[in-house]
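User: My notes are a mess, but here's the protein and zinc ion's SMILES. Can you give me a structure?
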Amino acid sequence: MPTAYERALDRAVPGVIAETIQITEIPAPTFRERTRARHVYDRLEAIGGWSHLEIDGLANVVAVRKGQAGRARLLLCAHLDTVFPDAATPVVRSRGVLTGRGVGDNSLGVAAMLGVAQAMQASNVTGVGDIIFAANVGEEGRGDLRGARRLVKDYARDFDAMIAIEGHALNRVQIQAVASLRYEVSIETDGGHSWSAYGRKNAIALLARAIVALEPLMPDPAATPKTTMNVGVIRGGRSVNTIAPDAVFELDIRSVEPANVDALLRDARRAMRAVVGDEAEVKFKRIGARPGGSIPMESALVQAVLGVRKALGLPEPEFYAGSTDANAALGAGFATTCIGVTTGGEAHTPREWISTAPIKQGVPYLGRSIVAAARLPRTTIRR
Ligand SMILES: [Zn+2]
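Assistant: No problem, the inputs look usable. Here's the predicted complex:
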């Protein structure tokens, strides 16, 4: 016999899908999440039962559900922000698929968290520890996990374990945090007119030389531990007839082995400075750093999630090393994982899509995992 909570989770599914569409259609680029945050706040207020509900200074939405002492206290994080600009774009619905910008990353994650909150309140779940429901800012790109970092800091004494929620990750369970470093690399020169000042140093040409110098350092895609380096954005110059006085690119280095990140950065700096020589100064500005970390498979949190997967007949998941809000808590030493709600693809592109059918299992999976974890004795989950 399903429990009242399990029935409430099943009933929440259509509402989660409708809410996913609504959230997707409210633009929320990183650093401009407030409108979406307001919307989520209103939803949480309507659900009710909170001992604390607020939008914090960064625009994280936080709702605290008081539970039973001695049980594991959870921090749930579903990020609000997307990699897309301000313009609202409609979600297209067709044959079991929703297509839209950020629909799975992470509108569905936020909507599913709301569905779980609603189901817990409606069925009056007991025997669980405190649960902090957070729809946070700043997970993507230059956000550098600012929202989740702030929550981990502000609530460090109020939770024992963290679960991050990502819409797409139904069959993936994060057990490692990929460490990363992000730098802005820039070169400045005097510049000048392309005809009358011809011969002066061109910042774009020098920067291009620096980028080419990275090529021999690029880690082998098949190597383990996996380590990556990417030139993601480049900009600079003034006009076609101006010797470029400035040029900048953004560099991203990641590894499941934090020491590799530092070593590769060192090599990259040395190689770029060597090829540019004394023709200009290569400047490095850190624009992001995500901590690494991991959770053992045998941990009570991971085992609770796997138990729920088994009960629901979900397949053996892929255990992965990720770069999500979970990194903020894993890096701080908390038992942490990141789980999801459905399957889909093309995240971070305008063609992003999710399948709606798996959400029928995904919402119960998320909801039951949260309650299974929050029912654990605190002593078994503490770091
Ligand atoms: Zn995401």
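The domain at 4-177+292-381 is CATH 3.40.630.10 (Aminopeptidase).
User: Great, I'll file this with my notes.
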